[in-house]
């Protein structure tokens, strides 16, 4: 397998200002996805299926999708949907549902299989593909297609495409709301404005995060990492953990912050790193108390905060995202610092991404 070095992450991060100023807003401005939209008025549930980054993108925008569209929204792993979820459907339920197959590559096998099986069971069902590659296999299984293809800059652990997938889902949420004449919490213009404003803070976020690389490496001390957050930040935590695994080879996992308190909080080593999303919003107080109690146990606490909380004294280190902040929209930017830090850590240990510096790599 071709050697994948962490420099690829640095190279792609250099494009992030333009990504948020131009490419992502362009996705929000695309032509409508639905040709026959008569069923949208009767739509009750949206199911989004994906694997890995696509699933985490779907999870990250779960709350804002509902807030925009007013529709029940359920992200489901593609394999789980194929083997379990689909058995709970009926023709009546399928008629009031929209299945979205999400794939950055355009060919995720279990997403393709799930879409095909769903259409075989319910030939008149509505199936949308959100695809990062035009002409991908999932498009062949869809009744409607929405492309989130952006400039291809080489394979990395799916960072630009992750952002595009999230924004693609928000574009669909806005279209659903518009066709239902539903006034949600955010309009299409609100999302575009947030993305463009975020582009102004990205370079500062990247610069200051790079400056903290050595501090994070010292705190890590070759242990594993737990990333925790609640609500929108839970999806972000899942993605951050995936990037740390794929980029640096360090075992990491994402968890809901209260679930970590219930279970993993009782696990050794007590000096392991715990990354907590400490965001103004509904989960702030619980995140704050968790940071304090986990620190007393001996964990190395790193808090991820928006600019307005950069003066916080909680934690052993504080990583800041600069630019506008909104609780439900926070997944659009808060994954950035630790995606970059994963490359910093990998470079420090002399590791390549995806274990491509080993001779034993194979996909299970």
UniProtKB/TrEMBL annotation:
Domain SIS residues, every copy: 35-182
InterPro entries: SIS_dom (IPR001347), SIS_dom_sf (IPR046348)
GO terms for biological process, alphabetical: fructose 6-phosphate metabolic process; protein N-linked glycosylation; UDP-N-acetylglucosamine metabolic process
Organism: bioreactor metagenome
Signal peptide: none
GO MF term (any one): glutamine-fructose-6-phosphate transaminase (isomerizing) activity
Membrane-spanning residues: none
Protein's name according to its UniProt entry: SIS domain-containing protein
Lineage: unclassified sequences, metagenomes, ecological metagenomes
């Amino acid at each position: 397998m071709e050697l994948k070095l962490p420099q690829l992450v640095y190279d792609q991060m250099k494009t992030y200002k333009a990504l948020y100023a131009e490419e992502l807003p362009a996705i929000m401005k695309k032509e409508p996805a639905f040709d026959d939209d008569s069923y949208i008025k009767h739509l009750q549930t949206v199911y989004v299926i994906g694997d890995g980054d696509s699933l985490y993108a779907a999870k990250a925008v779960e709350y804002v999708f509902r807030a925009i569209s007013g529709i029940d929204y359920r992200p489901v792993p593609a394999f789980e949907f194929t083997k379990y979820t689909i058995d709970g459907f009926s023709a009546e339920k399928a008629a009031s549902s929209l299945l979205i197959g999400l794939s950055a590559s355009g060919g995720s096998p279990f997403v393709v299989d799930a879409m095909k099986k769903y259409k075989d069971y319910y030939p008149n069902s509505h199936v949308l593909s959100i695809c990062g590659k035009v002409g991908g296999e999932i498009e062949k299984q869809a009744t409607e297609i929405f492309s989130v293809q952006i400039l291809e800059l080489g394979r990395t652990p799916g960072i630009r495409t992750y952002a595009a997938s999230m924004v693609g889902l928000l574009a669909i949420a806005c279209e659903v709301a518009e066709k239902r004449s539903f006034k949600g919490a955010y309009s299409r213009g609100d999302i575009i404005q947030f993305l463009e404003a975020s582009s102004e803070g990205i370079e500062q976020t990247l610069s200051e995060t790079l400056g903290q690389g050595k501090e994070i490496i010292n705190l890590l001390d070759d242990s594993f990492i737990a990333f925790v957050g609640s609500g929108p930040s839970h999806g972000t935590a899942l993605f951050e953990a995936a990037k740390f695994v794929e980029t640096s080879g360090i075992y990491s996992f994402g968890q809901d912050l209260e679930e970590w308190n219930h279970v993993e909080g009782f696990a050794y080593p007590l000096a392991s790193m715990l990354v907590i999303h400490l965001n103004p919003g509904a989960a702030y107080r619980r995140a704050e108390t968790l940071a304090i109690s986990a620190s007393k146990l001996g964990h190395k606490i790193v808090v991820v905060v928006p600019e307005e909380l950069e003066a916080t004294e909680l934690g052993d280190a504080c990583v800041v995202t600069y630019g506008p902040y909104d609780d439900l929209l926070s997944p659009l930017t808060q994954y950035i610092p630790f995606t970059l830090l994963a490359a910093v850590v990998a470079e420090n240990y002399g590791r390549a991404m995806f274990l491509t510096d080993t001779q034993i790599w194979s996909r299970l």
